[in-house]
Amino acid sequence: MTHAWLFTGPPGSGRSNAAVAFAAALECTDPHIIGCGTCEQCRKVQRGAHTDVVHITPRELTIGVETMRTEVVTPAAMLPTVGKWRIVILDNADRLTDAAANTLLKTVEEPPAHTVIMLCAPSTDPEDIIPTLLSRSRHLYIPQPSIDDIVAILTRTDNATEADARRAAMASGNHIGRARHLLHHQESQIRRTNILNLAELIFHGSQAFQAVTSLVKTATDEAKNSLAETNEQELEKLRTALGMGAKGRGAHKALRGSAGQIKELEKLQKRRETRAIRDALDTQLVDLIGIYRDALMIAAHAQVSPIHPDMQGLAGELSTIGEPNLLACIEAISHCRDDITHNVRAETAMDAMVGRIRKACNVQ
Ligand SMILES: [Zn+2]
């Protein structure tokens, strides 16, 4: 049995679900079918309720040494209690800092006999996973599902009509989770419409710049709202653990020490928020690339399925600016995605993008 596995695949390919299914198969107790999906162990793993399967989904920008020690290395060293294996699944392993990766390396090099570690990352590129970890792991590539696969899943499990499922699947960029979200959440459909609308607003004076301000604000507000409850709960838990609010001797001194820990937690929460905002904007920018790509396909008379089938009118209009200009627009958006990843303020990066697209579209 290999003790370290690496699941790679583009976002939405289901690499993390594949790891969970594999974990279920390892813990399965059915004598005939490995990974039966119906025995108690299988179901517990799939529900995320199995005591021997630890599934970590970091939401911060990076995973540091401390998180690695407490959430991965320590649990991995424990013996299984009810199951056959102790399994640790780590999502977003591409966010490991070098130091955290080296901390994990020791466990992967000399794994406890009953421990299996599963890492999930976008690719085997050294940017995503350090070569020493890669060379000690068994690699499994999970390809992206096709549009038809996604339609089949959504009609089967989400009660979607064929037409709704196909529209969501095509707009999702082959991402099952995204397709499902588009299907069920009106606000994500509105967000998609708003970003695609930007391609139209480019031609309307300064409206595109105003739209950028509003897009960034919406992404920021939504990230803040979605994290607010978790953040407050975490802070409350920490305050209680630190005995804040206590009175009497020693309380004052304890309070001074706690301030540092509270600050640390707030810093971590801030990082998580930044990540959520960037992820939301990145999804929108990928949508925006899609419309220029569709226009490019029309300009090139290519017989391929559009990414945004419901926006073919706009794509048709954009196609008239010609292939080199459309490529320049796509380049501008890619540039903006890079800038945001490299800590350029979102609004600044997107304003620059709008400027470049205006130039490519010959807007005076
Ligand atoms: Zn089973």
Structure description:
This protein is an alpha/beta fold and 364 residues long. The protein folds into three domains: 4-141, 3-Layer(aba) Sandwich (Rossmann fold), CATH 3.40.50; 147-184; 207-245 and 270-360, Zinc Finger, Delta Prime, domain 3. It is built from 14 helices and five strands. The protein has helices at residues 15-27, 40-47, 65-77, 98-109, 131-135, 147-157, 162-171, 176-184, 186-201, 207-241, 251-299, 312-319, 323-341, 346-360; strands at 4-8, 53-56, 86-90, 115-121, 138-141. Strands 2-3-4-1-5 form a five-stranded parallel beta sheet, with helices on both faces. Helix 8 packs across helix 9 (186-201), helix 10 (207-241) packs antiparallel against helix 14 and helix 13 packs antiparallel against helix 14 (346-360). Residues 28, 30, 36, 39, 41-42 line the site of zinc ion (ZN).
